[in-house]
Amino acid sequence: MSTAFQNLKPGVFPTINPYTYADDSTQPFWDAAKEDRLVAPRCTNCGTFRLPPSPFCFECQHREVDWVDLPGTGTIYSRIIVRHPLHPDLAAACPYVSGVVELDGTQGAGARMLVNIIDCDPETVAIGDRVEIVFEHVNDEMSTPRFRPIST
Ligand SMILES: [Zn+2]
Question: Which residues in the chain land under pLDDT 50?
Answer without folding.
Answer: none
